[in-house]
Amino acid sequence: xxxxxxxxxxxxxxxxxxxxxxxxxxxxxxxxxxxxxxxxxxxxxxxxxxxxxxxxxxxxxxxxxxxxxxxxxxxxxxxxxxxxxxxxxxxxxxxxxxxxxxxxxxxxxxxxxxxxxxxxxxxxxxxxxxxxxxxxxxxxxxxxxxxxxxxxxxxxxxxxxxxxxxxxxxxxxxxxxxxxxxxxxxxxxxxxxxxxxxxxxxxxxxxxxxxxxxxxxxxxxxxxxxxxxxxxxxxxxxxxxxxxxxxxxxxxxxxxxxxxxxxxxxxxxxxxxxxxxxxxxxxxxxxxxxxxxxxxxxxxxxxxxxxxxxxxxxxxxxxxxxxxxxxxxxxxxxxxxx
Length: 338
Hints:
Helix content: 25-40%
Protein name: Aldo/keto reductase
Organism: Agromyces luteolus
Low-confidence stretches: 1-26
Oligomer: single chain
Region (Disordered): 1-27
InterPro entries: AKR2_Oxidoreductase, NAD(P)_OxRdtase_dom_sf, NADP_OxRdtase_dom
Domain NADP-dependent oxidoreductase: 64-314
Distance between the termini: 36 Å
């Protein structure tokens, strides 16, 4: 498998916030950034400040050009991990076209994609429903060839999209056997998690007999760090850990309204988005942290991130930002697609 190269490998002081406390970790290098295409592959999404970043033209051509420009910017800055999904509109298609234009780059890249959600928004900003979830063998068999066709070949990592504890994917023998077949072919099979019970879903997937899974992409940020202990357990068991939504869909950026977090970032001498990204990159169990940047300037701000200060007052203040998982995910579900 192609793994991401490190960007900015200089040693830093790391900090860790768990669901219940914040503790310092030994100095070490920050996890490298990857580029996530969730906000770049479709006209509507839930990221705050998207209008200012993308403007009014959300045509396929405009979004393709934006995605390719961001992929170029990521490549030029040393980012080698790219994340997409079947439900991210045309993200796989945009990525596949970019790869076809730069075939010499493929061997240096780690490409991750996901199945289990379908994009049903019909490229409309005002669609009533943008995604439809189905964790079945039929869905996998339908979406796997679509991924191969869009990317021009297999991804390095292929994940069940938004696995939850009640997902039938955890008990479907035929589906699990098919995933084992893909794993035996050299594809790293994994899960992404969402919702207030991410830790339960991850632990269940990890402890399955003859589990086909070895990668997890989970939400972890200063407002929702509850999956941290489970991610540490997975990492200790040899899993590859990818952090998504480190800026909480824009809440932990200048476009959000998290005043306490903004004050902490100012006191720490960095921007709010940099503080949020840096806190995620400093987690000792994080292998890659995804940037959802929509402009090169946002990407540069993410790359400039560093670990927060490790004094007791700062660590306590960071831990105090955490919300109850149920409240965090309810607020996320209520966000407007725009």
